[in-house]
Amino acid sequence: MGRRNTMQKELTYEAVMSYPGHPSADDIYRVISSKHSTISKATVYRNLAALSEDGRIGRVESFANGEVHYDHRTEEHCHGYCMRCGRVVDIAIPYDNRLNIEAEPMEDGFSITSHKLIFEGICNECRKKEKENGTEGIKD
């Protein structure tokens, strides 16, 4: 049974596609609600889940703060996560399908079908702020 394409779903899709970078659900809600004040946060969250399930947008998760981000790119690729501000960026190395074959599961019967590779570090903006504040290299 196919899913309905509602106006709210298309607004959500358009917001993700036009957002620079990798927005969180709250980022997308703020964009949409600024123009359509009657849309609820639950509707936006539900439509983001449906769009990522349908493969129309990407979903980037499993960061230190537990926040999910969304991506207009749907092909497999790697990401970087800023440990200071939570920003998510694309990393310019190709997805390597060989890792799925070369990885040896620790449990019997586990079949690897894909992987997510996330690099952690500090983004350029946070590094600049730390340098200006004299806190460069200080860990939280």
Structural write-up:
The protein contains 5 helices and 5 strands, in the order H-H-H-E-E-E-E-H-E-H. With 140 residues, the protein is an alpha+beta fold. It folds into 2 domains: 1-73, Winged helix-like DNA-binding domain superfamily/Winged helix DNA-binding domain (Arc Repressor Mutant, subunit A); 75-140, Dna Ligase, domain 1. Helix 1 packs across helix 2 (25-35) and helix 2 (25-35) packs across helix 3 (41-53). The protein is flat.
Notable traits:
140 residues, alpha+beta, Arc Repressor Mutant, subunit A, Dna Ligase, domain 1, two-stranded antiparallel ribbon, flat
Task: Please write out the topology.
Elements: H1 7-18, H2 25-35, H3 41-53, E1 58-60, E2 69-71, E3 78-82, E4 88-91, H4 98-102, E5 118-121, H5 124-133
Parallel strand pairs: 3-5
Antiparallel strand pairs: 1-2, 3-4
Alpha-carbon distance between the two ends: 49 Å
What shape does the CA trace take? flat
Question: What amount of the residues lies in strands?
Answer: 5-15%
CATH class of the largest domain: Mainly Alpha
Helical fraction equals 25-40%
Structural class: alpha+beta
Largest sheet: 3 strands, mixed
Unreliable sequence segments: none
Number of strands: 5
Order of helices and strands: HHHEEEEHEH
Strand order across the largest sheet = 4-3-5
Based on the coordinates given, report the CATH architecture of the largest domain.
Orthogonal Bundle
What's the CATH H-level homologous superfamily of the largest domain? Answer: Winged helix-like DNA-binding domain superfamily/Winged helix DNA-binding domain
Tally of DSSP helical segments: 5
Number of domains: 2
Radius of gyration, whole Å: 18 Å
CATH topology of the largest domain: Arc Repressor Mutant, subunit A
